[in-house]
Design brief:
Layout (H helix, E strand, L loop, with lengths): L1 E5 L2 E6 L2 H19 L6 E5 L6 H7 L9 E5 L1 E3 L10 H10 L6 E3 L8 H14 L4 E4 L23 E5 L2 H9 L12 E5 L1 H5 L3 E6 L5 H9 L17 E6 L4 H6 L5 E3 L2
Parallel strand pairs: 1-12, 2-11, 3-4, 3-7, 4-6, 7-10, 10-11
Antiparallel strand pairs: 1-2, 5-9, 8-9
Helix pairs in contact: 1-2
Length: about 260
């Protein structure tokens, strides 16, 4: 395992995505258990994406007092049927929400009749249960949740909002097998905003795979700005970025002998 420090962002690079997911899960479980020593309840946001599979599988087997953990999910398509298999809530339900006994699971409802009211409802829940940990990935276009570059706002006053999806984001959903074609993807989605995600005291960001190599490179090398939303992770004092050698390939080309060091 190799380690980098980029601004304030701690980066860990593993030989493969299984080892990455397993170690991230162990560290996540340890963080929850540590927080529960001083807090009655820990609030966690989860991402729904193929990049999270190994992490979620390993996390579901960790020894955690889940009955003192509230779970949220961070984004959802608007307009899908309540039982549609592409719903991110369903993805998380199958991989983690139904596998461990959370105190409470709070779902974003993209099928709600009044989407504005749904944004308000979820924002109030996030205020009522301030987030301790955000578990996330990074999109191929460097988005965080559904904050694509054209809608990302590092100073967004909202906690939850409606966004339209850019073409790169839609294509990623097709590439990952969520939809047969771009035309089948809903035009709009609900997303937690970047300030809502970054509000967490701790961030665990799991980003494996060759398709994420360019996004990882931009995350660690470009100016911190909305054009590359994931660059904002570099200003968080307790953020961890977990990579495998595939997603880190461009980074390792720059630092082939990387050990524990400052990258920038």
């Amino acid at each position: 395992m190799k380690e980098l420090l980029v601004d304030q962002l701690k980066v860990r690079i593993y030989p493969d995505r299984k080892e990455m997911g397993s170690d991230a899960a162990k560290m996540m479980a340890a963080r929850i258990n540590d927080l529960l020593k001083s807090k009655e309840v820990v609030n966690v946001i989860f991402a729904a994406a193929a990049s999270q599979n190994e992490f979620l599988e390993a996390l579901s087997k960790e020894n955690v007092n889940w009955s003192n953990v509230n779970a949220f999910h961070m984004d959802e398509y608007i307009g899908l049927a309540e039982d549609a298999p592409q719903q991110f809530g369903k993805f998380l339900q199958e991989r983690i929400f139904d596998k461990v006994p959370f105190k409470q699971v709070y779902y974003l409802k993209g099928y709600a009749k009044d989407i504005k009211e749904e944004c308000n409802r979820y924002a109030e829940l996030l205020k009522q249960y301030p987030v301790d940990i955000t578990c996330m990935g990074i999109g191929e276009n460097t988005h965080l949740a559904f904050n694509d570059p054209h809608v990302a706002d590092f100073n967004d006053p909202a906690m939850v909002k409606v966004v339209d999806l850019d073409e790169a984001c839609k294509q990623q959903q097709v590439n990952e097998g969520c939809f047969p074609s771009v035309k089948d993807i809903p035009l709009y989605a609900l997303t937690l905003t970047i300030p809502a995600l970054m509000k967490a005291d701790y961030i665990f960001c799991m980003v494996p795979g060759t398709t994420k190599a360019n996004a990882v490179y931009h995350t660690l090398n470009d100016e911190i700005k909305e054009l590359y939303p994931s660059t904002i992770l570099r200003v968080h004092s307790n953020a961890l970025l977990f990579l495998d050698t595939d997603s880190a390939v461009r980074v390792l080309e720059q630092q082939p002998n990387a050990g524990i060091l400052n990258y920038n």
